[in-house]
Structure formats: C-alpha cells, structure tokens
Amino acid sequence: MMVAGNYTDYPEQEWHRKSMMNVNSLVCPVRLKDAPKDVTLSLRSCGYSHNLMSLRHLNEQGVQAPPQELAVCVRPVNDSLLYSTIVAPQNIIMWIEYLKMLGVDKLFFYYSQFDVRNTRMRNLYQKEVLRFVEFKDWSTVEKNVDKVVSDEAAVNDCIYNNMMAFRHVMVTSLEDWVVPGPNYETLKQMVKSSEFQSSVDLHVGYRLQRLPNVDDKSTEKIPKTFIVKSRGVLGLAANHFVPLSARSSFHELPQNNVAMSSFDKFTYQKVYWKLREALQHEIYPRVKAVLFKKV
What is the distance between the alpha carbons of residues 36 and 38, in angstroms, rounded to a whole number? Predict the structure, then answer.
C-alpha cells in the first residue's frame, strides 16, 4: 500500500489549518479477475472495522459515453450565512442560467440550508426533463464537521464522482461571477482551445484571479474558484489542489482569459449587457414560478 500525503501546499496565512485535512492516495494491487465493490479501513493492523465504503471503478469495460468538456461544482450554500442579495432566488436563477450560457455542461449544486423560496427554486430545476442542475443536500455533513472540512469534502466528492464524465471541472462559489476575457466568448470555448489544453496538461489547473478594483465584501484573501483537469488532481486541501504528479504546478489563470467578479461589478461587464436579453428570457418564467406559484 502506498500513501502519499499532502503537507506542503498550505498557504502561509492558513498555517492553523494544517491538521484539518490531508489528501491521501491509497493504491492496492488487485488481480484482474477480481472486481471488489467495497473497501473497509481500520486504524489497527488486523483490526475489525465497522465501516464499508463503495468503490468507484475508473477502468470499467464496455461502451462508455465520451466525457463532456466542463462541469461546475458549487461549494455548499447555506443561505442563512450569506448576504440576502446573493441567495435571493432570482439571483441564484440568474447565476445558474448565466453559467449555462457560458457553455457549462452540468452544474452540481451542494447546499446545507435553503429557505422556502430557494426550496421552490430547487424543485423547479429538479423537474426539468433535460436536467442541467443536480442538487445535493450536504446538511448532514455540515452539521457534524467543521465548515472548512465540509466545504473541501464537498469539492472532493464532486470531483471524484464526475472525473470520468467531464474533462474539466470548475470549482466555485455562489458569490463569484465568472467573466470571460476578450479572447473567448464562453468557458467551453476556452477549455477546448489548443492554448488552454497544452497549458493545463502542464499545470493541471488554474486558480482564477479577481478583476482589478473589485470592492466586494469577501474576506477571503485567496480566490476560491478553480478550473482543473479532473483526472490530474488528487484532491483539495486547505483551498489548494494537490496534483497527481509531483512535477505539476498550479498557476493563476491570466485575466485575459477569464476572471471573477462580484455581482455588483458583474452587471457593469460587457458580457452581461451582451447576454442581458437572453438572460431575462430564461430567468423571468422561473422567477415567476418560484415567487408567485407553488412548485
């Protein structure tokens, strides 16, 4: 058994979080004729364990659908801890529809608490035939562990469950609005470009920069939005991705490709005015259903 632990990727200002979570890779030789479905872990050698965790096979045989380009994993949302303007259902709907227009293939939305109106919003999206958003209730996890650990566990859960279905995964939060630079109109166009592909093979992923002079209310010193090659990372720890290869590095994506903005600043961006009419067309019936009808 090989164990590779993460002990070096913690930023200096977050030294106090070093003991919270480590990402480990555990590799066991398995005979070709064996196909284990579960694994159990014990703290003692030859000890008896009561846990049983399902395995996800990454080399399944047979016909498989080709992976899509880009999924988005949303860090767990607790609408009682965020500013009311951020979690208002009309703003969440706008945020979701905007990402759809940027070419995102699938959105995985983790949440720990929704009010009545946002519960209606969730139910509305879950009833759609071609479901773009998958909601996952993360309240049980968040009640039992530290908020930071819960957040990082959700990100890892999202990446591991979708690493074979999507070539790239963007991890973000509800507070961040992604703004494509002048080189690209959509996120999908960017991740499919030869320039991005050659660069992401070398660096595994990128941390998105914030637009300059953004006076938002975030207290985070380090942006929490990433784009990663989903099969190139071991996991997330201390707001840093651990690359699968020790030779890989993690860089900030230049702002001429894509950057982040707060909602207030986003409404002043060219991309908003370009998509405004189309956004209103998609948003209005959904907002009407959530605010004025039972869903």
Answer: 6
